[in-house]
Structures are given as structure tokens and as C-alpha cells.
């Protein structure tokens, strides 16, 4: 067994979780990276030489059509011990458990806002893949449009098990417990407060340094996540490209009975292997996994009066064919100062053509200070009303307005142009707050026609 990387060459047993291993990273969003775990493993000046160094195979992984414009063309060249076609067996359908893919009819649920308490970790041993539980689906994965919103409840590390998603790019949002994601491209460590993005087709194995982990997962069926345009904000703030980290090359040369699981066409397929498929010794390109620390997000906001649209909190966006209309947006609501004068500062009451799946990583969310717990979920679907609860309204309407800092809070949103269909699993959870949709009934009339 052999694993090599500029920072982890001394590791003798890569199957074991070890906090002493420090993955290496390269900074920048969407850069053309190059990295090698052995000196001279990366061909210079060409992609596919007649004979690759060290007897490696050259393989291209494309995330876009070959003819996509340069600005959106995504591909990487991988130099591996064996090509992916050799990491192949007799695939058979396997139990997808609670993982669902659009289009789904969905369950019958009351029309209106929905909210769930945190789903507890199970007593049984579930890997990251086995622990995916779908809450909503939207659009059509086969048409490469829409998304799936899930929670993952993982209680055991993947050892000789590997996975890749052919249906979607995956945005992983840990909420409790750390993840070590071994990928073909290198190793990513992600903790609560960070996110990791795994492009479609990239093989992974997920280990749990803390023994278990819970979090959220967005399957993006559409175009890859990119950084939103800043418009009049200009060149700085929001998510800065330099803060995105892509792993340096690391590989396994290990022949042992293994399992490969592939998500394709909404189903999970499994095959037996006789070796690890994470055998990429060097690679170059712009199609690669990455992670981002959400605490490095630099928010902007109004500095005199009124609200700015919540789109100012967009970290990543998956564009659609309609300009300004996202297939999926990933937004966060983090620590920041509120300073607007003569202004109702909490989020306003509204109805929206976009549908909003929210989660809370830690702290309290300003518009719902009660009942929305870390690890919980809320869903405010397309053209259904929502807004602050009674406590947030009264506080926002009557508090003395002076500079106030929101601290120790991190909520996020998966927002899509498609209606989100609630799965039968989610509709049947005992954590579903059956009376949540009535929170608006607590808001009484303050109308007085004699007083402006």
C-alpha cells in the first residue's frame, strides 16, 4: 500500500483516520491548477504523451462539452495508475435507501411554509452515502436542471468503499462533526462553518474523524457553481476567489477488495473492485473539488436606510439559460453589523418566485429566533408567503435603532427557480413541525385610520 503527496508521503496506512495528516491546498476559484505527488509525474507542454512518466495513464475528465467557451469550459487531465475503465465491474442496482432524485411527484403536504427540527443521528452504522436522506427535489436531473436538498446522517467511515455522482455536482455543508473527503484529486478536510464542492464524476471516500457527522447536501443538477457577479459592488467583498482551496495531488496504490458506488439516472449502482480507484498521481486543469470557509465571506449591506435584496449574501450560483435567474443559489446569513436607520431590519414579509430551502449550522437565525434550531430545516416554496415571526416583528418594530452586531450565527439557503417537492420521508418525519405554518396567525392588526 502506498500513498504519496507533498505533505503526506510519510503516511503508511491511508485507510485509518489520522488527525496528524495535513492536506495541502492551492488557492483560487476556477484556476488552471497543476500538481503532482511524484516529481516529474506531470507531463510538460502536452496532455497526452505517447508514454506518460512512471508508466501512468492519461485520462481527461470533462465537466462541460468540449466546445464550451473558454470562460465556461471545464476539464482536467489526470495521470493515474490505471484508467477509470479498469476500475469497473459488473454493476447492479443497489438500495438507494432515502436518496431521491427529481423528477419526483412528492408527498401531499399542507400548502404553506414548512419547518423541521434537527433529525437525530441513527443508531445503526451508516456511511456518508447510506446516510443521505432527501428532503426536497426540484426540476429534472436528466434534463440537467434543478436540484435536490438533503441531510446526511453518517455514523461510520467509508473504508474500502468509493462513490461518485454522475447526476449532479455536490455541495456538502457540515453541521455537526468533521469530514475527511478523500478524492481523486487529493484530500479535503471540512468542518462545520466550511463547505466542500465535489464536481460530478469525481470519485470520493468520506471518513469521519469524530466518529459521526450530520449536515446538508445540495445536489446541483445544472451548470457548475460559480462566483456571482458583483455588479456595482465592484471588485471586492462577498466571496473572494483566493479563499477557495483545491487539494494538492495525493494517491493510493492499494490492491484490496473494494466497492464502487455510482449514482446515475437517479439510481445507485454498485460493483466490486480489486483496488482503490483513488490512484491519480498528478493532474492539471480547472475541473476539481474545492472547499471554502464561510467565515471568510465578506458581507455588504445598507449603511443608511432600507433593506438590500438578500442576493447580496450569495456565495455561489449555478446559472440557468435565463439571465439573472439561478438554477441554484447558495446564500449564507452570517455575522454582520446592522446599521440602517429608520428601517425594519429583519427580513421583510414577501412572496417569491424562487423557492427557499434553509438550514442553520449554528446560532440563531434573526427572522426566526424561536423554534429554528441548528441542524433544522425550513422550506418556503415558490409564491408562498413567509417572513419574520411575532417575536422578530415586535423586536424589529420597537427596538431602539443603533448599530447592532449579529454574532455567532450561520444560516444558509439553497434557492432555486423550481418548486421544491417534499419527499415522503420528509413528510412523515416526527421532526416536522405540524403547526409551523400558523406562525403568521400570531401577527395582529395594528391598523389605525386616525393615526398616520
The biggest beta sheet is recorded as: 9 strands, antiparallel
CATH level-3 fold name of the largest domain = Jelly Rolls
Number of strands: 30
How many domains? The number is 2
Which strand order spans the largest sheet, edge to edge or round the barrel? 2-17-22-14-11-16-9-8-30
Give the helix/strand class: mainly beta
Task: Note down, in words, how this protein is organized.
A 9-stranded antiparallel β-sheet has the order 2-17-22-14-11-16-9-8-30. A 6-stranded antiparallel β-sheet has the order 7-27-26-29-24-23, with no helix packed on it. A 4-stranded antiparallel β-sheet has the order 3-21-5-4, with no helix packed on it. It folds into 2 domains: 2-294, Jelly Rolls, CATH 2.60.120; 295-432, Sandwich (Jelly Rolls). By secondary structure, the chain is mainly beta. The protein is globular, with a radius of gyration of 23 Å. The chain is built from 2 helices and 30 strands. A hairpin with a 2-residue loop joins strand 19 and strand 20 (267-273). The model is unreliable at 1-20 (pLDDT under 50). Helices cover 3% and strands 35% of the residues.
Entry summary:
With 452 residues, this protein is an all-beta fold. Helices cover 3% and strands 35% of the residues.
Secondary structure: elements and pairs:
Elements: E1 2-4, E2 25-27, E3 33-36, E4 57-62, E5 75-80, E6 92-94, E7 114-116, E8 132-140, E9 145-154, E10 161-165, E11 169-176, E12 179-183, E13 186-190, E14 194-198, E15 204-207, E16 213-220, E17 244-247, E18 251-253, E19 258-264, E20 267-273, E21 280-285, E22 290-293, E23 314-319, E24 326-333, E25 336-338, E26 355-362, E27 377-380, H1 390-398, E28 404-406, E29 410-416, E30 421-422, H2 424-427
Parallel strand pairs: 10-19
Antiparallel strand pairs: 1-18, 2-17, 3-21, 4-5, 5-21, 6-20, 7-27, 8-9, 8-30, 9-16, 11-14, 11-16, 12-13, 12-15, 14-22, 17-22, 19-20, 23-24, 24-29, 25-28, 26-27, 26-29
